[in-house]
């Protein structure tokens, strides 16, 4: 099955291992840009090699595009994707649930995680692509075997808003929002995207725990800088964090 989303081809599969992996295969086959969505994922992936539990009725989709920028600059696109997800969710829901953005790439409703983003840089024959994967708990949330008091709980849009949204209906809205937010980055630069993201930032100016490779600490989440790094105040001085997990302070 195929759709057209904002002038781009979208391949809709019954099942794939992951939509990001399918996007990489489309790139290898010569497709310059587009979307892929799947009704099921057998090996969904999240950040840092984690698995993404793919419940039936949720959205699993990826977009890829050619870029002429450094991998460091491509990190800014995760904030573009987060804003587009927020636009899509708030545009389809009645007023009520608060939708916030958790650094680096989660979307929360009323403090519960409902969506995540996986950004990957792919190079082929000196051409660079950015693949942006979207996972949205529209109908169901995975049952967690281990819960942490410092991390947001996981829920679905249906749980929190009592609104049923079909995955492809949501994808059409998301594609329009993603095109708009990409244009915003291209025309106005990251500063405007950054300001809008901070307007909806979760835990801004609150105590957090930063957990990175060999470096974990407590501080106050103050901002993100011009490259998308988290700015966390630690003992009165700013720490600039490029890659880590962020949770509530007090994590054991």
Per the principal axes of the C-alpha atoms, what is the gross shape?
Answer: globular
- State the assembly state of the protein chains: single chain
- Main β-sheet: number of strands, strand sense, barrel status? 8 strands, mixed
What fraction strand? 35-45%
Helix content: 25-40%
Overall structural class, as computed from helix and strand content, comes to alpha+beta
* Poorly predicted ranges: none
Task: Kindly provide the radius of gyration, computed on alpha-carbon positions and rounded to a whole number of angstroms.
Answer: 18 Å
Report the average pLDDT across residues. 90
Can you tag this structure with a few keywords?
single chain; 252 residues; alpha+beta; 8-stranded mixed sheet; 5-stranded antiparallel sheet; 6 helices; 36% strand; globular
Compact description:
The protein has 252 residues and is α+β, with helices and mostly antiparallel strands. 27% of the residues lie in helices and 36% in strands. It is globular.
Describe the fold and architecture.
By secondary structure, the protein is an alpha+beta fold. Helices cover 27% and strands 36% of the residues. It has six helices and 13 strands. An eight-stranded mixed sheet has the order 1-2-3-4-8-7-6-5, with helices on both faces. A hairpin with a 2-residue loop joins strand 7 and strand 8. The longest helix has 22 residues. It is globular.
Summarize the SSE layout with pairings.
Elements: E1 2-5, E2 8-16, H1 19-28, E3 34-41, E4 59-67, H2 71-74, H3 77-92, E5 99-102, E6 106-109, E7 112-124, E8 127-136, H4 157-161, H5 167-188, H6 190-199, E9 207-212, E10 215-224, E11 230-234, E12 237-241, E13 245-248
Parallel strand pairs: 2-3
Antiparallel strand pairs: 1-2, 3-4, 4-8, 5-6, 6-7, 7-8, 9-10, 9-13, 10-11, 11-12
């Amino acid at each position: 099955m195929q759709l057209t989303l904002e002038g781009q081809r979208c391949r809709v599969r019954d099942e794939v291992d992951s939509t990001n992996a399918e996007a990489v295969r489309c790139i290898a086959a010569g497709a310059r840009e587009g979307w892929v969505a799947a009704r099921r994922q057998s090996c969904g992936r999240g950040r840092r090699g984690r698995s993404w539990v793919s419940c039936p009725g949720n959205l699993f989709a990826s977009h890829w595009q050619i870029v002429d920028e450094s991998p460091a600059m491509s990190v800014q696109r995760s904030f573009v994707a987060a804003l587009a997800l927020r636009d899509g969710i708030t545009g389809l829901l009645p007023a009520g649930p608060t939708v916030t953005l958790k650094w680096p790439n989660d979307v929360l409703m009323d403090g519960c995680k409902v969506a995540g983003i996986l950004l990957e840089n792919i190079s082929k024959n000196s051409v660079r692509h950015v693949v942006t994967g979207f996972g949205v708990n529209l109908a169901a949330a995975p049952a967690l075997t281990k819960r942490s008091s410092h991390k947001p709980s996981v829920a679905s849009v249906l749980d929190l808003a009592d609104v049923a949204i079909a995955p492809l209906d949501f994808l059409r809205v998301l594609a329009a929002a993603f095109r708009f937010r990409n244009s915003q980055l291209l025309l106005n630069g990251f500063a405007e995207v950054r300001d809008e993201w901070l307007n909806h930032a979760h835990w801004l100016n609150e105590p957090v725990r930063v957990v990175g490779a060999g470096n974990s600490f407590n501080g106050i989440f103050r901002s993100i800088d011009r490259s998308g790094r988290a700015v966390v105040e630690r003992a009165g001085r700013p720490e600039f964090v490029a890659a880590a997990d962020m949770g509530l302070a007090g994590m054991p």
